[in-house]
Every structure is written in structure tokens, then in C-alpha cells.
Amino acid sequence: MDGSLLPAFANHLPVRIRFGSGVAVELSAVLARLGARRPAVFVDPALAGTPVIAALMPSAAVVLQVVPGEPTVRSVDDAGERLRDAVADAVVAIGGGSVLDTAKGARLVAEQGPIRRFAWPGEPEPIAPLRLPLVTLPTTAGTGSEVTGGIVMADPEAGIKVAAPSAHNRATDCLVDPDLTLSLPAGPTLWGGLDVVAQAIGSIVSAPHTPVADAIALEALVIVRDALPAVVNVPGDRGARSRLACASLMAGLAMNLSEAGTDHSLGHAVGMRLGVPHGLSVGVMLAASMEHDRRYVPERFERVADALGAPPDDGSSDGSRAVRAVREMFAAIGVPSLRDLGAGEDDIAGLADGALAAWIPVEPGPWAREDVETAFRRALDEGVTSGAAA
Q1: Least enclosed by CB within 10 Å: which of 4, 129, 367, 373?
Q2: Secondary structure letter of residue 139 according to DSSP
Q3: Which CATH number fits domain 186-380: 1.20.1090.10, 3.30.70.930, 2.40.50.1020, 3.40.50.300?
């Protein structure tokens, strides 16, 4: 019957990926294959002088340090101007999600103009194919930006986060070396891991999901459910670091084939209003967003629950097992509540305004303003202050 047919979908994953301990040393070989003689390297200032990163630098590289913190429209435009002035024949990005997004944005700005022309919300211009090859080396495990086509940045004038997504923004090559994450402090390690969980779940339950995205995202959840607690408890566990880096890569790939979940619409507002890092902001909103969305696609949330190792189906089949599994995992690893981050009841209306002003329209079912406010109110006390049963 026609009702049993899978919906049509189109997927495109053009990034060449190398994963494994030590693969970062292949950067020079990758650049040689690309014919690059004068690469511009975007790098986190905190990493630029470290022996590990210094050893990776090509001899003819033009080093462009990235402004600390999450990228803004202005910082991306500035980076694009510096890249244009460098007259480089390739771009290399070494760092966390902010560095990778800055490099992707700079490449776009250098070739096609100011970033806000291509950013949503608004009326973005189409992004044309880009000339400069891009090689990404993530030093965190979380955003998956090393393989995604999104460029996310703050627009302080508008008070929202904006995005310039396109398959053309994706890296040409990606070297995921888990050893580059070994020195990552506890906070960013946790925040990145929360983003892995959120992006994998979003890829499964959001409206644009595909069977291909489901398969990758479900396996990412199987990996991260054990890897994240292991890394939080024993930061030097190289095996757990490797698994978390792999889960991050897979969640990024899955999000390319689907989309992020509603936790990102909510979390972006948290990040803008409270100055909270991206991974932490979506993490504190994940369970609250799931609680609303599960009513529309409970069967997908049941698959999420199974991947997270939740106890067997209790007969409800309503997706609530997935929400409990996330709450229990996050409580066990010390994820704070929205109130712990400084928010209160007086912030609810402003948070809702921010979320709705830049809402990503990929949710599996309707969200009214009342629903958005309810989610923020629920998240106020959902975390270490209230425990797993919140």
C-alpha cells in the first residue's frame, strides 16, 4: 500500500573523514593532496602556542587567531577580511566549535561577502560553491561542526543567534584525532558531550529526519551513553575520549542529514540571555523540549530510549522512557538546572521572546508561546538541584 512507502529524501555527505588516534599528523599530507602551499590556519589562541598544535602547523601557514568566545556576526566578518588579506589557497581550522564555525564563516565572507547576507532568520541569499578547500581538526567533542554545513553565531544587535547553513560550507577534509581532546578541561568536556546527546536525539525526532540519519544518530547515542559519563568521571580515559569523539562526529553527520531538535531553538535563547556556552545551553533545555515533543512522535522517542539503554518498555509506549533516561544521565553527571545558571521566573518571558524570534521550524509538532514558556519554566529546576526525578 502507498501508506507503507518511505517518504522520499535526499542526502549529501561530501566530507572526507579520517578518524583515530594520531591522524592529526596527516594534515600536511592532506594539504599536499589539495595542492595547498599557503594555508590560512584558524586556531584558538589558547592552543596556538602548545607543542601539540605547533607541531601540526605547516611551515608556510598564515596563522589567524580566533577571538575567544562564541562567534558573532562582526567577528566572522572580521575573520573573513583577514582571510581575504592573507591570500591563502586553503583554510585549516583547529579548535572547538567556535573556531570551526568562525573558519567556515570566514571562508564564506572572504569569497562571497558579509555573513549576514546569508544568515537566517531573514531573507538569506543562496550560498554558491566555495573555492577554498577547508580542513577541520576538532579539539573538542560536541558540536560536530567539523562535518556540518552550519555556521552559527550571535547577532548582539538583534539579540538572537543566527545561522548560515549550506552544504557548500562543509569541510573538504576532516581529521578527527581524539588525542587532541585529552587536555580539554572538565567544563567544556561536559558541555560538548551534552551537545552530542542533544544533536543525536534531534536528528531522530525532528521533522526532516531520514532513515540514514536515524541509523547514524541511534548508534551515536549507544556510544555516548557510556562514553560521556566515563569521560566526566575519568578525564584521562583515552578510550572514553575516543568514543566520545566518534559519537560527536556521528551526531554531526546525522544532523547534516536531518536537523537539530527544538532544544536548540530554546537553548540558543538561553545562550544569548545568560551568556551560557552552546552545549550547556541546549543540554539544560533537552529534557524539557523532549517532554513536549514526545507526544507527537512517541515511536521515535521509544527508539531513543532503547539506544540510551533505558529499562524495557513499561507498556506506555509514549516516549517518556527517553525523557527519564536523559534526566537520569544528566543528573548523574552533574548537569545544572536553568536556575543554577542564573535564570528565574522573571526571565521566562524574555527567554520565550528570544526563542520564538529565531525559532528553527523543524519541530515534530506545534509549539505555541505557552508551550515555550512552559518548557523554560520546567527547566528552571530540572538538573542537579532537583535530581533525576525532576
Answers
A1: 4
A2: S
A3: 1.20.1090.10
- Give 389 or 88, the one with higher predicted confidence: 88
Q: Which residue, 177, 50, 81, is CA-closest to 64?
A: 81
The rounded distance, in Å, linking the Cα atoms of 156 and 255 is 26
DSSP 52-69: HHHHHS-TT-EEEEPPSS
What ranges do the domains of the chain cover? Answer: 16-181, 186-380
CB atoms within 10 A of CB 69: 11
**Is 387 a residue whose pLDDT tops 50?**
no
Fill in the DSSP letter of residue 336.
Answer: P
Say how far apart CA 390 and CA 383 lie, in whole Å: 7
Which helix (H) or strand (E) segment is 192 a member of? helix 186-205
pTM: predicted TM-score of the whole model, two decimal places: 0.95
Nearest to 164 by CA among 116, 206, 131: 116
Domain 16-181 has CATH 3.40.50.1970: yes
Compute the average pLDDT of residues 197-217: 97
* Average pLDDT in the chain: 94
Query: Can you read off the three cell numbers belonging to residue 186?
Result: 572538565
- Report whether pLDDT(389) > 80: no
Consecutive H or E run containing 39? strand 39-43
CA distance 200 to 220: 7
